[in-house]
Amino acid sequence: MWLAEDKTHKDKERRSSCTTGPVFREVTRSGKIASSETRAKKATKRGDYLRPQTVDERVKKWFYKAGLTTDGRPISSHSLRAGGATDLGMNNATEEDIEDAGRWAKGSPIPRTVYVRPAKNAKHDPFSKVPVNPPRAVSEESDAHHAGYSPSPGGCPFKSRLLRGMMLTMRILVLGGTWFLGKQVVKQALARGWDVSTFNRGRSGRDVQGVEVFHGDRTVHEDLTHLAASGPWDAVVDTSSSEMPPRDVLHAVRALRESSNRWVHVSTVSVYDGWPHQPLTEASSVLECPPDADETFGYTGPNGSPTTYGFQKAGAEKAVTEAFGDQSVLLRPGVILGPEEYVGRLPWWLNRTATGGRFLAPAPYSRRIQPVDVRDVASFALDQTAAATSGPFNVTHPEGISFRDFLEACLTTTQGAGRPVWAEPAFLLDQHVTQWTELPLWRTHEGAWAVDPGRAVNAGLRCRPVTDTVADTWAWLQADGRPVQHPRWAEHGIAPDKEAKILAALS
Question: Which is nearest to 383 in space by CA: 173, 235, 166?
């Protein structure tokens, strides 16, 4: 699709940057725009660039979405070559320029005799109706951000605008997609104008309107085979493997490898063998678990770490990287909060502060915590889906919030008349208060809230204030928000009679 209204490539000096080869051959499968350096590195590797079939699909999609009709001839990516030659020929490009644009053999008569077509009135050109920019009210800067690249200052506007239009049209598959994080990923992807498919069992939550729905069980080989035949996708975003053993993740990535270019996997900070005892970065060591392990692999230590869950998730990560290599992204969030939370951490604190009276609070009140909003995790996941990044990212709040400010936000939001009674960790432990669950988000270990998100921040992670998450979650609860039923909800919150006894002891 050559944009006739953008004639900046007429200029000889700038035209050379546009005619070094067909524009689609400069886009890798991961969405990265190739430079001369990366082209040289990958020239010997097959499959690094977009397949012709993928380009065909995109051209047909754009054409019919624009409400255009044909004159009987088929629509295919071959039109790009013809359109480019015609456009250059109309602007007095040299034979050499046109040959270079289509990568024809030097001296070939084909460009002039076959592909350079007579100029026609614009009203007969179906593509004259297609806007240069995607039909969304977003800025150039925002488009470039979501496309995962920034056009170089000296680059060709003609090429960059064409690339923007292509990169913003993605087809992704979300495993899950009906509740909490998966639902947010789907909703935000649709808002970006992407084509979204979901695959789930159809048991938890409702499918979001506007998606292509596939129902099945990802642990069943036949269901995965049927799903793979419905591809290809630019990327898979896996939000539904938190309770699956590595071998089930391995089966899925192998089944979908040929129908997807990229895999974004939601993992956890629990994969680190130093969590929650030590401050962590992505360079910290990870628990060892084979990618084909079953649900019996691993153990939970006597002090609660490491955990079987952590071993299992480490094995799942290995399964993903084994299949997708540098086209895999591993998201390692800590605690995710926000509207539709199903675990019950923030809802418990909101309901407790709304109840009023004295309530138990874990000292020290200055201790900072790093919960991240589900909407920000979803946004970052999609950014990495469209980017050329790979590897692990710690997805935790870069600023966090003190426990005192967190509880004050709960009190302010709920307009509760409660008063926190701060108790030292040693006292709470003596009273057999269970960390992490009876007083949600409280954990004494040094590394629990010392997970460095620097790499994610550098890659674009932006986190709203935790106070906004608190307010929005309360608004959702007040609007009769009901999470998907999950057994972890019942685990959170100290029993009223136990809390009363402890408060009496503190008096």
Answer: 235
Given a contact cutoff of 8 angstroms between Cβ atoms, the answer to whether 352 and 418 are in contact is yes
Please say whether the beta carbons of 102 and 115 come within 8 A.
yes
- The whole-chain average pLDDT of the chain stands at 80
Cα distance between residue 364 and residue 504, in whole Å = 20
- The radius of gyration of the chain from alpha carbons, rounded to an integer in Å, stands at 27
Tokens describing residue 144: 């470039």
Q: How many helices and strands (H and E) does the chain possess?
A: 19, 15
- The pair of three-digit structure tokens given for residue 348, joined into one six-digit string: 């418990």
Cβ–Cβ under 8 Å, residues 329 and 262: yes
Helix segments in 172-307, DSSP class H = 180-191, 221-228, 246-256
CA 392: distance to chain centroid?
13
What is the percent of the chain with per-residue pLDDT over 70, rounded to a whole number?
Answer: 70
Per-residue pLDDT tens digits for 7-37: 333 444 333 333 333 444 455 544 454 555 5
**Side chain identity at residue 67, one-letter code:** G
Structure tokens at 1: 């699709």
Note whether 382 and 188 are within 8 A (CB): yes
Q: For 391, left (φ over 0), alpha (ψ -120 to 50), or beta?
A: left
As a whole number of angstroms, the distance between CA 37 and CA 17 comes to 15
Distance CA 110, CA 34 (A): 27
DSSP symbols for 370-435: --EEHHHHHHHHHHHHHSS--EEEEE--SS-EEHHHHHHHHHHHHT--EEEEEE-HHHHHHTTPPE
* β-strands 418-423, 357-362 pairing: parallel
**Among residues 171, 319, 199, 215, which one has the least CA distance to residue 257?**
319
Stated as kind and residue range, the H or E segment containing 332 is strand 328-333
Positive/negative CA dihedral, 172, 328, 35, 460? positive
